Fold these 3 entries.
Entry 1:
Amino acid sequence: MNWHNESITRKIGGLSTVLLSFILIVILYSIIKLLEIGQEMREVARVDIPLTEVLAEVEILQLEQHLLMEQVQLHQIKQNPQVNFEMLKSNFQSFSKKLDSELSRAISLISNGLESGQISQQINEHRQALEDIKAYQAQHKVFQQDAGKILLSSIDGDTELANWRSLEAQDSALDKFAITLLKRIETLTEDIAKNAEKHEREFLAINTALGVTAFFTGIYLTTYIISSFRKRVSSIHGKIESLQESITKREPLSIFDKAALEEPAGADELTDLANDINQVMSKYSEQMTNRYQLEDQLIQLATTDKLTGAFNRHKWDDCLVNELENAKRNGAISLLMFDVDFFKKVNDKYGHDVGDKVLIHLSELVKQHIRKADKLFRLGGEEFAIIVRDLDVIQASTMADKLRGVIEQTLEDGLPRFTVSFGVTQFLKDDDVDSVFKRVDQALYASKNAGRNTVTTL
């Protein structure tokens, strides 16, 4: 008989036939504690950790759904014919259905766990979590209904824009709700795991006492069983502890190498549990990696102008402060500000859609003729700015004049010819954000007063 691979119950049963009768009570206590630990670990592995996995998936789906909303809004504003709007709506509906399916799965996990008795720790907290998930599902269904109506219309008008903003507010509320749910389940998992750890220490203490009491009659079997059991429990405990740390820090399980996730040898209950935890850890790490990728995309959306692809005003405010500090330490940094001459006439004569295309074309043209290190910003309307490093005001003025000439000579099919006016200045030693911005704005104003399509340096 391969004793090492036998179940824990049979190992303890075999040992009980060897040990003296006076330790029978201790053995029974050990079995009870072992079953209790197994129940707690199974609850973590089969209910709470899968529930955390499902809610993490819900949070990721919520982020993906938010990205799709941004893509739909971007398509509506730019009216880009290369974007398949119907496919965007279909993907949006698909994500919504998948999210609803995951919520139903979470509800089923808790409900089945409560009915079957798998959930034996913090039952009231699990019931409250169940009610919260149901409430979240109800809110999401309302969001699906509203989204289905709004996605069928354009967002150009004031009413449609207000409806879209209302939908975005619902989406943000669902994001916060999903994060709150995930944190609550993570806290439940941590508490149960800590309780299991406490019972584990108690159980190990009893087994140590058993080894001392039965030293002469069962030293070999006791030592062998405890050593093998402690190795398995220590491995499982290490995995759960690492998973707890990852959940707390909200980071992928990058600390695990291939050897740590290898399938453990043996055929007992702890081996099965270790295999289940390995699978959960792998899936969780993959989902966290995907989540960070989505967060990076959201950050890009938050700092980029949706129409032109240039950095937006929010990014401008941050960069201006940083570049001012950099100028004080590292030397020349210049600022170029420009806008389209008579842009209102372009909108009035050709329409706002053509005006938008002019701004898009202008942004693409400028990006082609500036250095990779230079940063282009859209400050609002037809007003743009460029921050350039390692160029003094004279060099920056030359750069602005070249851009002005390129724009003036460019002719694009379907777009009217247009010119731009530039204001140029350099970060000075005593400058702050307000002073340098005011000076470059004055330079741009001077170019407009000088007849436009010109460059003024201050």
Entry 2:
Amino acid sequence: MTVLRARPLETSAGSLPLGAARIPGTGFGVDLASAGYREDEYLVTGTATAWTYDADLRAVPADTDVPYTTRVLVRRPADPVRFNGVVQAEPLHPEYDTANTWRVLHPWIMRTGAAWVGITQEPRIAESMRTEFDPVRYGELSIPTPSLRYDIVADIVTALRTRAAGLWDEGPDIARAYLSGWSMTGSFCRVFLGEGFHERRRLPGGAAVFDGYVVGISSGGAAGAGYPGLSDDTGLPGMGDGRRTIGGHDAPVIELLSEVESETHGPVLRPDGDDPADRYRLYQVAGTSHDSTGPDQVNTNQEQYRRRGLPVPSRRIVEMRSDARLDFVARAVFSLLDRWVAEGQAPPHADRFVFDGERHGDAVSLARDEHGNVLGGIRTPWISTPVARYHPHSTPVPGACRPSPWMPTIEPAAMTWLAGNMTPFSAESLNARYPTAEDYLNRYRESCLALLAQGFLLWPEVEPLLVAAEQRALTLFPTC
């Protein structure tokens, strides 16, 4: 497994990277320049191992030294001196090569001086980029088989950390690198750990390529979605297989789940761990759904596809869309992980959700209070000081949901099953709970400050929550 060559790609108004940080003249994306950041894109050529399972479902090489060409996006401080030594790496999501870690973390990354690296690892999107999206820019892309993806991601980060192939040629060394993913790429991280890639892939001197992991909105109990296995054409470890449960490694692992994934996560639940060989936390965030990961317009990929006349999905729900922000909690969780690695300061434990025992297929319902809000978990301010019922699943507007070309057979009900909604309390219920707007705002503020003290919110996220609560109070309590 070797990175052989990295070639930078030129960016112009007429030729932007897929998933560019910003589409000029639109509301899509993030303005890097105002934060003192730059974006670079590379085509990277190397060789990797294709993996399969033997008769006992153990990972074994199927072929070695398979050539590939992928692309890598790097966002880092424009002034190398400002780089803080931390790289957040993510395997880009198979659907449009979207960067969900960037979507969740970009404010925290830029205010701390960290870098972000996104790596194309899915053959289908690489082929679409090569033949549909931009044959001129991406005509060399080639990922022959899905099972190369684990070594490709490790190859790229190894090259960055060792300054190979010109991928990281200026500024301070990378001190700490983290791997994270969300939904399908969260499951990528689970397989990376479960199949031994963390132990297998080492830097010169023996240190792990990745210093820690966040497995986001992925349930190990969700059949193929939670543990897709090594490749599309290999078997899946069964539901009772121990690889579905995060085991002990010489790097800390945090699982961060919404209510949706928690419904199927019961069979793989395990205790938190503080042993040096098994550092682990599970955080379940109350009042959140699979799609609570931040504003849609942060990622530019689908808009870029749409502007080229290529198909993109649409999804509308009958209910009021939830305003929950799992990403606000996630930024604090990543900060806790970095402190765990850099300073040895173990993060807090958190209460977990309670199951009510009612089974729906592979899912078990979560216990809820008299208003319909979940019990247990990290008590977000919109749940501890509620003005609405938050529910993790929604109903499709008839005729208004169009599936992605990557999942053309998915039904509208399945698309909106991942979307959260909220039902405002009645005026009578609000008045019974909060005598005045001031009472509501004081209690909401106390909830935010409690999470800040616990480490589950950072102050830059507390401020917009308080502003939103004040705006909400003007509507809910008109006499204020």
Entry 3:
Amino acid sequence: MTDTSVRGRFQWTVVVPVLALVVLAATWASHEAWPVLVLIAVVLVGAIVAAVHHAEVVAHKVGEPFGSLILAVAVTVIEVGLIVMLMTSGGEGTSTYARDTVFAALMITLNGIAGIALLVGAVKHHLVSFNASGTGSALSTVVALAAVCLVLPSFTTSGAGREYSASQLGFAAVASLALYGAFVFTQTIRHRDFFVPVTSDEQGRVTGLVDEDEDGHADPPPAREAWLSLGLLVGALVAVVGLAKLLSPTIEDTVSALGFPYAVVGVVIALLVLAPESIAAVRNAARDRVQISLNLAYGSAMASIGLTIPTIAVAMIWLDGPLVLGLEPTQMVLLAITVVVSSLTIAQGRAKSLQGFVHLVLLATFLFLSVQP
């Protein structure tokens, strides 16, 4: 890549977050006109892409698996901000916003991001390899979080309907943070080697770890550029949350006009906030670094539950109305199938394109049933 192209790309990724913040401030009070909404949507997409770039710059500086963790947490910040803002705006779907968005994030990460990464990686490299020990521990943590926060509320008797009582919600929040904290400690300190890219033989069997210093990639960026990217990443995330908030009434009106169930709003929100993860996962899969792609997928699923539910639990102190977390029967069946298929996918530490395709079919099934339950 020439110095000119690098400079142009760098300038573009600097301008877009600043422009997004300017548009957010200028349109906050009045944004009903269609030309303004189109402008907001375009700038929002640009802010998401810029956020991906700056997250990758920071990730390259700190190395794996810290890079994947940073992007997962950054995306979850977007998700939490959107859910809280939408819940404060009221409406008929307020009580299920958190559940629908978190569950949609689970389906998109476990089937969509993981599926497209496996498919792209296997198509390009014939077989893809990853560390089954690290990825398996990530999946087990996601399953435990989903069970505590999304499945059990449908079976408890202290709360009304599919809700937790106040004490149960508090326990679920603490348990979620404990599980997430334990995994982060394992991933970044105790067993970091289980979550870095691996090398493999012609049959896809893992032979070792990728040497970050001799893998042919560019050197990490200087500290000044990394700090600048961190600041621009924060600015881009703030802009994404705010701009998506401005677009949310239009999303809700469109869903209602099309006659779709209100849960589709949560699906749209999840698709929006997980766009940075999806792009980064595909890029890494194309470079035969599926381990990073899976770190992103499972890390995002984990953060989506482990950080969102505790935040919503605290927000319920001042938010009025019920908080429905328990999944519907169809959602529980989809979650169960996804868990079984994911377990079989990662068991051997290598995968063909078929596994990626199977996950994408499950994602398509979820999306179709969301529109036509």
